[in-house]
Amino acid sequence: MTRTENGKVALVTGGGQGIGQAIAERLHADGFRVAIADVNVETADAVAESLGGKDGGAIAVHVNVSDRDSVFAAVEQTVTELGGFDVIVNNAGIAPTSPIEEITQESISKIFSINFNGVVWGIQAATKAFRELGHGGKIISAASQAGHVGNPGIALYSATKFAIRGLSQTAARDLAQFGITVNTFAPGIVKTPLMEELAKKVAADAGKAEEWGWEQFTKGIALDRLSEASEVAGVVSFLSGSDSDYITGQSILVDGGMVFN
Cα(186)–Cα(254) distance, rounded to whole angstroms? Predict the structure, then answer.
């Protein structure tokens, strides 16, 4: 498709690979100027350069989403360098296995600091920027199919994604008065490095072959195939654009038919 600048700016956390990269690429194709924010600035730089760099409407931004100040700084840098701010996609996250009997205070703290706290800081930073710029905006966060139905072996990951949905529903009510919509997208099983690592770990923990690990997550997909990251990005594209202006507080499942609401 031919890219036509739409005058809007989006920031995507975890934009250096996987789903986040696909989202950044799709929003850029839609005409957004995009900030690719990642803790790994090298991968973020590579994505930004592949989209033409700053002259082409793409910049790399370093962010540690578990650090509130870092998230606020990333949003401020985006506003300064790209000349505005309209959409934040809180996509960054980790997905370690967490057998119930092995959960510790440290493992809880680590995953919530990234997956959940990072969304809190993103909502706060985006709201501050939108209000200072004098307009509304769109806050879009990564939930998961595992945030609608608990998945085996990943109790903490599922817990963070359920929490993100609850947080986003409340934020949608609280921020509507400012013209800000708040939604989540809930991927199923997507072919990404993160998912491959998780499937291997689940299998290893159970003493099974890698194929068994994949089966624990892929069985029950109505469409009988894994998702491509670009398919998730398409849903985020919809939530970022004007066609979704009357949608808030929702979690859109893009899982090939694993969970039906």
Answer: 6
- What is the Cα Rg of the chain in Å? 18
User: 């939604």: which residue's tokens?
Assistant: 183
Nearest of 138, 196, 186, 126 to residue 161 by alpha carbon? 186
Q: Say if residue 19 carries a ligand binding annotation.
A: yes
Backbone φ and ψ of 33, nearest 5°: -80, 135
246 an active-site residue? no
191 in a known ligand binding site: yes
Residue 258 backbone phi and psi in degrees, to 5: -100, -40
Domain count, the chain: 1
| Domain extent for 35 | 9-189+228-254
pLDDT digits (tens, 9 = 90+) for 92-144: 999 998 999 999 999 999 999 999 999 999 999 999 999 999 999 999 999 99
pTM assigned to the model: 0.94
163 domain-assigned: yes
- Single out the catalytic residue among 85, 157, 185, 217: 157
Q: Whose structure tokens read 């608990």?
A: 150
Q: Work out the pLDDT band at 2, boundaries 50, 70, 90.
A: confident
Tens-place pLDDT, residues 21-72: 999 999 999 999 999 999 999 999 999 999 999 999 999 999 999 999 999 9
Residue 188 labeled ligand binder: yes
- Write the CATH number for 165: 3.40.50.720
Strand partners, 59: 35
- 108 labelled as ligand-binding? no
